[in-house]
Amino acid sequence: QRADYTASITALTSYLQGLAPAWNDSTQVTAISRSIWNANWEYVYEKRQTLLNAIVDAARQRATWDGVSGSNKPADNATLNIVGYDELTGAFTDNGILIGSMQSLRKAQLRAQQASASVFVDAFVDTAAVDDWPIVAGNSTDNIYYVRTNDSGARAGGSVLRIGGDGSGNLAGDGEAWIEFKERFPFDPDKLYRIKARVWVADEGDVDRNLYVGVSGYRADGSRCNGAGSDSYSGQHYVACSGLAVAGDGWQEYTGYFLGNASTTEERDSTGRNTIAQPAKLHADVRYFSPFAVANHGGGKQGRTQFDYIRIDEVEPAGNGLYLKTNSGSSLEDNANPGEVQLCGFDANGNPDGDLPGWFIWDGQRVTIPPVQLNPSLSGQFYIVTDTDGAWTSARSALPVSIERGEYKYHYYDSSTTQRVSFVPTENHLIIGEISLSATEMVASGGVYQNPRPLIGFSQYLSGLNEKGQIADQRSLQQNMGSVASLPTSSTVLSASDNGSTAKIAISSHAVQYAGFTVSYNSGSITGLSFSTTYYVYVDDLDYAGGGVTYYATTQIWKLAAGIGRRAVGTITTPANGGGTTNPGDPWCVAAGMWLREGLLADNCETDELIDCWDVGDNDT
Fold first, then answer.
1. Is residue 95 pLDDT above 50, yes or no?
2. The model's pTM
3. Which domains does the chain show, CATH number per domain?
């Protein structure tokens, strides 16, 4: 192949040298045949590729040590001297190809780290890796501690770091080992780090032995600094895994995040809860760290523990880490802790956890959202809104918000009362998702947005529409419209009487039936009225709140429509001066030949049937 490649170069060179004027004479124009040039160049390219393929084949064969001799020849079937790395799966592969001078596995790993922006990664692909992880505490004398190649459980490179026993059933009398990588890495408190380890703890020996994975802290002077600030191996920053007895759980991946220095002692949660939203903080004096692990902890414990890989990455989160737990088809009703709609985050391994906070990126900063139950106690479509500092009114991190005719309202149930409060949005209010509840407050849909959006300027629609675009709750209508389709549950609400020199109208306590809910009103009275006069009684109740209200009486019927929160109570004529008590008359007129709703005549009516009636009106209509 090399000879053919050399011959192709010679042929191309001969063609060029035979041109006249000379091809490299820049003062003259040289004519070149396109077909001859293409033929010569294609021949050169073909022979070059053939030679390169042959070099690759030869390198692949020599990587298995076939045909290699000399005093420094490694053992047959030794590990290939190059590794590939799959950043998508986070695993090393064994299909790397090395061309040129041989390089160490450590350099191959370094290339993988640089490609993935990792701070550190070790997949123990070299048998010498055990020397990089000295046992700094525990049993370092007669422990069984080595790199096992071609392990069936390994994903990253095929080798594992084995502690506490071999593959023939031999276990160390004391398998406990505190191992630490021999190099230290500068700690940047402004960067978010992720430590991840894949570990297998055999279901053998003492199954109650514990596992720890994290980082060992160091001060600027090189002395150790554990979580409490002591110069000690113990009590280190076990961010990924802390004291778990996981014998028999198979291969498990343990992950933890850490960011910044604590004010004094370390700030760290339990395994799986040191997340992007709430990363651990190293001790205030930590300036360097080293990967650190404790296997078979507990004092004289027997059993094997294997590490597939340990890696530490710098992480720059994008998007969000929010999750909306919804139990579709469940009714929220009036319940402070419904459970069916909960905004939360993920654990360190990416599993939704209703007890953990979530996060999102806004204006280049990570905003943390504590977990919260979302229960608007109302049907319709709602935005999920938070503040840029991750907390909002009533100490809640997020609230369902409706936009009704340009008016913003947040909704929640506070364990005793449904709250629907109008507010003026600011530039700090962000929409992070939405939920939709049916007419019976059944969870129809919900989710979080990939990126938050400002509430101000967001498209405004009438909240409370169902999936068909219909009003799902009568309270979404203004009172003067909604009250048209309402009836009092009491037969007599108004009465008028002679109150001495003037007349008086009394309003008894009563309830008003709307579509799917009732509103109760307290009693009241209106005094100082004229005798023998027809009055129209009304109340202003914009939010369907009921309770203690002020009643008004007017002689002008048009005033019943003069306010969007106005509800007509009834019509009554006061008695003459010196008269007794009056009650509203029957305002309906029924004729025997009128049709009923079911197609029957009025004179066929039976008890409790409804009749279509004419409204006789009053003197003003």
1. no
2. 0.60
3. 2-62 (no CATH), 106-315 (2.60.120.200), 323-475 (no CATH), 481-585 (no CATH), 588-621 (no CATH)
